[in-house]
Amino acid sequence: MTSTRKSLTRDDLAPLARSALGRTPTTVTRIRGGSKKGVYRLAFEDGSTAVAYVWSPEEDLWDAGPGDPRDPFSHASGLPLFTAAANRLAAAGVRAPRLLHADPTHTHLPADVAIVEDLPGGTLEDLLNGAPAAVKAEALERMTALLDTLHACTGPRFGKVVVVDNGGSSYGRSCEKIVVARALSDLDELAGREPRVTAVHTRLADWLRGLAAQIRPRAEPPTLIHGELGPDHVRVTPDGDLALIDIEGLMYFDAEWEHAFLRLRFGPHYDALLTEGLDEDRLRLYRLAMHLSLVAGPLRLLDVGDFHDPEFMRGIAEHNLGQVLSFLKNAS
User: Fold this and answer.
1) pTM, whole model, 2 decimals?
2) How far is residue 242's CA from residue 175's CA, in Å, rounded to a whole number?
3) Which of 238, 240, 256, 315 could be bridged to 282 by S-S, CB 3.0 to 4.6 A?
């Protein structure tokens, strides 16, 4: 179990800010979130702000260490993943915080760091929870347009952008085979720690394999997707523009994986984002696999012991376990 992570201070980040921006921040504030990296708002005397990303073991609540980027679902954290994703989104015409400075040299901090533009305003999640209906509708229209732009981009192979755009290849033979293998691994892990899963382990494993067997090979190239695109990972600027954040997991994959996550996180607002041409067989498999992942992942994070709101994580795990068991009951 790791100790509670300690926030960096103005003194810690001032040398980096002076080197990158030629200015010293008057205040430094940790921005809530960022379970894989430290996120800090730098405020300057003239009222302007910027945001610093810090990738260090002390800032990573998952305590996972470096992941192998050839695995599309490996730990999506680090400056190389961020810069590759930022460049790809810029080329695609999808807004993300503009990269102002990247430093892998550890000159000012014992970690890879980046400074990006600060996008004032809240998240799309904040807006959907409290704005008038007309404002919500306009934001969802913009979100649909953003998804259309993002998903119109394809890659020559599936995998993380940092791998594919550099000519590399990922592990695995197809998107669906990677998903089912990961889901079976999550299921085995959960069977060892959760009696409700232990009791139905064989039935769930058979169901996963049965769903996978129904999927037809796909000839179309893989789609550019965010990977964890909830409304909390979309910033809303004062002029109503939308920008993606937490982009390190950007990859070429099946659009159905994105839509399984969108449906889960946007809830009653998802219908506004639904698109034609999705493979229902892939969606069924991916929804089950995602629910299993969202049981296993939060429980792993709680094992590390440093998450600021453990009850919230337990709630995520319990909700998604309920979804898995409900799906199994309905499939019987």
Assistant:
1) 0.94
2) 28
3) 256
